[in-house]
Amino acid sequence: TKPYVFITRKLSDDVIVALQDVAEVKMWPKEEIAVPREVLLEEAKKAAAIITMLSDKIDAELIDAAPNLKVIANLAVGFDNIDVSYANSKGIIVCNTPEVLTDTTADLTFALLMATSRRVVEAAQFVKDGKWKSWSPLLLAGHDIHHKTIGIVGMGKIGEAVAKRATGFDMDILYHNRSRNLAAEKSLGAKYVSFDELIETADFIVCLTPLTNETRNLFNENSFKKMKKSAIFINVSRGPVADEDALYQALVSGEIAAAGLDVFDKEPIDATHPLLTLTNVIALPHIGSSSTETREIMMALCCDNVIAVLQNGKPKTPVRI
Ligand code: GLV
Ligand code: GLV
């Protein structure tokens, strides 16, 4: 009998054709509703592989409920939703989807930066609301992007791709990272600085660092206070890297100018979230890598990783911690 594979969300049928050749595949049938925990725990009992979303918590309890599990393939580059070291200790391989989403996520990061700075969402709403009565010199005036300083926190592949885009806008590029990225320094003119120097001097502070114990609440009350009053904070990594209450306070009190956020502490947020009351906030529903092209490639990569492990081959993109 074929090994059993559970996919925690409805994917399109053509994406899973190759997987169905080697496995019995079951998908949670809903596209827009996450699989309930009880269902996931039950499915895990039989599964040789699980394809997971970043919203599924794959902790020790779930791993212990899955005696046959060989591989967890997460449809994301981030894997903070998975207890990777515990999985590995049980001989389970964890895979993610690096590289394939780099440019798509950098595009969204830049789109959010530009939209926030030039008040694009507010301005579009202004027109739709019928409020445009005349051209006027300072109507919805935002802030320049070109020739400003961008500070990238987390200079991995996506950070580099954002820096590359910034060069086209003649921006000065600062970055902070656990280790120096000499390639980015050489090819993009990015300058390595301390975290404090970055947040104190950058006009745009762009958070792209993975969520780890070291980066949780990295952006806190103190860090927002150190930023320029004109600073714009962009977060496209994980919500808990920033203290959301502190961010709200910083925006309300004018310690920083605006924020563009693709990620939140607890997702999804609903319409009553305090940050949504602020006109200087653009909030997106965690769509960094969401182009149809890239999402299809990510889904195919998850399937390829599962097939490889089930056939005793080498997964293409195992997470190494
Ligand atoms: C999305 O947030 C990802 O980690 O791919
Ligand atoms: C990692 O998160 C990256 O930037 O590719």
TrEMBL record:
Signal sequence residues: none
GO molecular function, one term: hydroxypyruvate reductase [NAD(P)H] activity
UniProt keyword annotations, A-Z: Oxidoreductase
Gene3D superfamilies xrefs: NAD(P)-binding Rossmann-like Domain
Domain D-isomer specific 2-hydroxyacid dehydrogenase catalytic span(s) in chain numbering: 5-319
Domain D-isomer specific 2-hydroxyacid dehydrogenase NAD-binding: start-end pairs: 110-288
Classification via InterPro entries: D-isomer_2-hydroxyacid_DH, D-isomer_2_OHA_DH_cat_dom, D-isomer_DH_CS1, D-isomer_DH_NAD-bd, NAD(P)-bd_dom_sf
GO CC list: cytosol
The family this protein is said to belong to: Belongs to the D-isomer specific 2-hydroxyacid dehydrogenase family.
Protein name: D-glycerate dehydrogenase
Organism listed in the record: Fredinandcohnia quinoae
